[in-house]
Amino acid sequence: xxxxxxxxxxxxxxxxxxxxxxxxxxxxxxxxxxxxxxxxxxxxxxxxxxxxxxxxxxxxxxxxxxxxxxxxxxxxxxxxxxxxxxxxxxxxx
Length: 93
Ligand SMILES: [Zn+2]
Known about the structure:
The chain is α+β, with helices and mostly antiparallel strands. Helices cover 24% and strands 18% of the residues.
């Protein structure tokens, strides 16, 4: 069975600095905020490196941000499906 696109999209929420900075629109699938990448102030890295490559949402402070360069739609409907799958384990077909 193929995974729904909004579950595959989750992989774009880590180590995503290049993807986010090249995007025009970014979205957070935790708080469902949609925003341009230039308002992101915090980036977080792996615990064992000093490199910060993962965008942190400026609204809810979570590392659950994807950008439109990922190829996925950045809208509330899509982000909400990601939220349900990633944080509530509920798959909406
Ligand atoms: Zn957020």
